[in-house]
Amino acid sequence: MTLWEFHIVFPEGESQEIQHRLAIGDIVDCNGCPLPLPLPTNRMLAYRVSRVRTLEERGLSRILHYLDQLSATELLEFT
């Protein structure tokens, strides 16, 4: 039996467990929840999934989603 864990890794190196898998390019909030597009404003804290890594151990698979913080200028294309 294999257990699955999903984590988001912030640019500073801190990580947080989430309950679901994300795809590369997804725009998420600080809790790892995908943001609905179009965004209401470009003045919000948002991250883009830049890389996904899988660590496998005996009986445990850990999926790490690395995040990059988006600037207000970058968020303009999603408003």
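Next protein, fold it too.
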Amino acid sequence: MLKQVRRATIDRGVLGGSTWWLVLGALLWGVRAIRIATRRDTGVLWRGGLPDGETLMVSATQSVSGSRRRRRRRRQR
């Protein structure tokens, strides 16, 4: 039911021009965004043992944005 009300807020508030529906939609979509942002979505990626003397290294790299990628290409030319 909540999904149908959120859809109606788009139809009647944004497209229909109703201020009341627009405010209701902002509240409902805001609550949904907060719930998605704060949920704990943890999962097990790997489970197992390591032999004695072995180590496991986990690292992450930051992706390069499009503008930085273009700048790097220009410098290399």
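About the second fold: The helical segments are 2-15, 19-38, 66-76.
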